[in-house]
Every structure is written in C-alpha cells, then in structure tokens.
Amino acid sequence: MSFNHFNRRLHLYLAMFLLPWVLMYGLSSLPFSHHDFFDDLYRGDGVSTWTKRFERSYDRPVPQGADLRQIGAQILADVDLEGAFGAHQPNQQRLNIYLHDFWDHTRLSYFITEQRLVAEDRRFRWDWFFTGMHARGGFQQDSFLNDLWAVVVDGVCIGFFIWIASGIYMWWLLKPTRLWGALALGGGIASFIIFLLAL
Fold first, then answer.
1. 20 to 30 A Cα–Cα from 80, which one of 21, 33, 116, 150?
2. Which CATH class is domain 50-122?
3. 67: phi then psi, degrees, rounded to nearest 5
C-alpha cells in the first residue's frame, strides 16, 4: 500500500470516527452562542430550574485555605451521594458542591455558619446537556470512566490535527483544486486572524 493510499484511508476512517464528536462540539456551540434564546424557550413552560431534594442540619468545619475537593468528597459521603463533582466557595459562609453527569445535576449548598445543608436537583434541558458534554474534561475525578472520557477527548483532539494534515496533503496532490483550496484555506486563516486581533 502506497503512502497516498494509506493517507486517503486514514482521512476517510478518521472522518467516520470523529463524526459524532464533530456533531457534539458543533451542536453544543449553539447554546453557548444563543443562551438567551434557549432560556426563553424553557422559561415559559412553568417548570422550576431547581427542585429541593432535602434540607438538613449539618456541621463540618471548612478551614480557610482547605482542600475543597476533599471536603466536598467528605460531605457527599456523609449524605450517601457519589459521582463527578466540583466544589466552589463563593464566600466564607457558603460552600457549593456540584454533582453532575450528562443527564443529572445536583447542587449541595452548605451554609457553614448556619450549619445547614441543602440539596437541589436541576431540571433537564437539552442545551445544558450538550454544553455539559462540550465542557467535560480533565483528570481530576476519581473515576475510571471519567478518566477514559478525558483520554478519548485527547485522542479526538489529536485526530483533528491528523485529519487536517491528511486533508491538506490530499488537496496539494490534486493540482486542479489548489487555487480554490488555497482561497478557502486563506479565507479561513484571514477571518480567524481578523477576529483574533479585533475582538
């Protein structure tokens, strides 16, 4: 098999493998750009964004400068919840823990000085589903599947570069397409640079 034949096959099968990922990142970009439209779309249906699951007395110290992920994991264990999560402390009186997967999202609000813990479930919305997939990544979660997702996303990123390189190589070999290909490539690069410098 010649390199040209291998490159064509590589480009073809990479396109097939990357198709669901390109669709996901493309579709999820729409809610990022048009969040007001989607907010209006769901606002009129009368369904509350958050529904309280429980509220209870709770006491766990949160020292200043403490590891919030460790404290968040302890709080989740105390209330028998598990999964991927993030912890955020907006002020000294409150700690928020966001427990999430692609379908469900739970927020635990620990009011430290009040010694009160509130858990709320967020409603499902398709725009949040797609933006959640788009933003999901990293190796900070203690889960094999979360790490595997991150590894696959890394592989997809590498696949994009190989797909681009193999496409450019094929374009250059086809002399009749060089002019239009150069115009397309130059137009894309120029538009990107203009926005990069102007915005």
1. 150
2. alpha beta
3. -75, 105
